[in-house]
Amino acid sequence: MARPPSPRVVLHLDMDAFYAAVEVREDPSLAGRPVVIGHRGRRGVVSTCSYEARRFGVHSAMPSVIAERLCPGAIWLPGRMALYVEVSHAIRAILDRYSPLVEPLSIDEAFLDLTGTARDLADGRRIAAAIKQEIRDRERLTGSAGVAPNKFLAKVASDLEKPDGLVVFPLEEVPTRLWPLPVGRLWGVGPKTAERLNSQGLVTISDLVHAPEGRLARLLGEGSAEHLLALAHGHDERAVEPGRDAKSISEERTYGEDLTSPADIDKALLARADGVTRELRSQGLVARTVHIKVRTGDFETVTRAVTLSEPTDLAEVVLAAARELFRERVSLKGRGVRLLGLGVSGLEAPGAGQAALFVDERQEKLRKLAQTADGIREKFGKAALGRARLLPARKPAGEDDDEGEEGGGEASSLPSVD
Ligand code: TTP
Ligand code: MG
Fold first, then answer.
1. How many angstroms is it from 19 CA to the middle of ligand 1?
2. 405 catalytic, yes or no?
3. Which class for 217: exposed (0-12), middle (13-18), buried (19 or more C-beta within 10 A)?
């Protein structure tokens, strides 16, 4: 009989008060003081703050005016993204020495699959302690680690004893340590869903687990209910995916019939900009460079690229750049478009520039809209939400409403992340 697969050992590491901690490291006179990263004033928001400032109630994404009121004695710093990225790379280099399977999630957190190196969770704890110590020695920073048989429990665990925490979360401890937590800790439960569950008296994960059978499915749909209950029991099969630190994200499509009308070409660009930026947002990244690839009916292929003044994850911004590239730098000379691709590169965590430290109202509005749309798509499937402009009176050849699927005839779609 085949042996059952050995249990996995997954580690999640999240640095403590990352930007603020780097600033304190650079200027030790800040140690022990409330430090806020962000710009003061009406349009500013808090990027993060030291744990000393958190005691006053200050937190990430809070409008600066409120933070100033809560903690008048705070030291405000504008943030130095280049430095934080450099430190992030140095930490990544440390992590890479402990496992070939490292999946970065943001500028200051990553999953490591330790299954190959750690015999069991206790061994995982030993490795986590060594990683934390090495980060402390080399970078003079602290991080919090969670060690568990899967990604979900590892991520919950790393947050349980922040800052400077190290928590091992075996499956047996799910009832005592996971069930008392609020439903919002389950992946997939955003503020809206949490509110809905709370209004039904379902406040803790324990409430979900003990709800009468079928109740959750009636509230959220069968798929979501099943997913949440699996997590609530500490089950999560997702693999640590090192490929997620993509260098570029792109989509291209070949059309059965060459696109000739400007309107059809524009619709195709919009569809690709939509797909690529949705992937960006789902990975929590923004991009600096937009490129397009155009193959004409006679098989000439050109690529064109432009670097944006601010990185973005918004379809509108990417589309505007792609349109301009197409209009200004592609010459069809009467030929039709056989293949059209759109990609983004220069990927980074958001907040990499001034843009995230200030609230740009129009961009924020667009982002909120996009995130709401992403949420709806995730919940109800891709067909649930299109854009008005994506519903052409006449579909371009090979273009399909159903994202990412092949169109008629010889059309093909090649989304790729590399
Ligand atoms: P987090 O890991 O969420 O926060 P943190 O590291 O500052 O604090 P914690 O100890 O709770 O982990 O985010 C990492 C960095 O990302 C953070 O230092 C600053 C940046 N960031 C923003 O710029 N804006 C935000 O809204 C958030 C949440 C983070
Ligand atoms: Mg952090």
1. 7
2. no
3. middle
